[in-house]
């Protein structure tokens, strides 16, 4: 048996067989495969590390957003009905009040086609939420011309004491104010009026013998004397 092994290991052209060697001359193939496998594993490890960094960055952004949410640049909100900002503090109250003014044909500044001024003062901060108006013919017959509505018999405008004009100019009252049945809402959060301020009403009668009444529907904010309302 030992002679047979000696004969195999000494066959011509084959040389001696070395333990652990590839008898077909491919001794470098295994090493190349291992090197390629190591390179692939290294690439995969880098990819996993990059994904971990991305997940960590996303987690940080999510946490920051939860702590301080970003305010959108714009939002869509309805303009009507009017919705003022009312305080929720327990020591601040609100109350509805109608301020107003009257222009009558018996007043010395009553002239058809000319504007008469009426000043309305406010000592309590409030929101103007609607404007109503009406007219009555005090002349003979107490009637308006055919097809003419009460609020179509005069022009109207309103201006804040700071010069801010809620209306840029006089307009037929039918286009800008309502009545007791259908109030003329200001819209949005209302028109802010601070304590000690006033508004100027411009009323231009278009007919003789009228009594014109303007009502300003306000929500007062009753609070300490230094309190002001916000937009």
Q: Would you write up a description of this structure?
A:
The protein is of the alpha+beta class and 231 residues long. The chain folds into 2 domains: 27-76; 93-222, Jelly Rolls, CATH 2.60.120. It is built from 2 helices and 9 strands, in the order ααβββββββββ. It has helices at 2-9, 29-67, and strands at 93-104, 116-121, 126-137, 154-160, 171-172, 184-185, 191-193, 198-205, 210-222.
Order of helices and strands: HHEEEEEEEEE
Described by the principal axes of the CA atoms, the overall outline is elongated
Count of helical regions? 2
How helical, in percent, are the residues? 10-25%
First-last Cα distance: 109 Å
The amount of beta strand, in percent, is 25-35%
Specify the CATH architecture of the largest domain. Answer: Sandwich
- CATH fold title of the largest domain: Jelly Rolls
Oligomer: single chain
Features of the shown structure:
single chain; alpha+beta; Jelly Rolls; 9 strands
What secondary-structure arrangement, pairings included, does this model have?
Elements: H1 2-9, H2 29-67, E1 93-104, E2 116-121, E3 126-137, E4 154-160, E5 171-172, E6 184-185, E7 191-193, E8 198-205, E9 210-222
Antiparallel strand pairs: 1-9, 2-8, 3-6, 3-7, 3-9, 4-5, 4-8
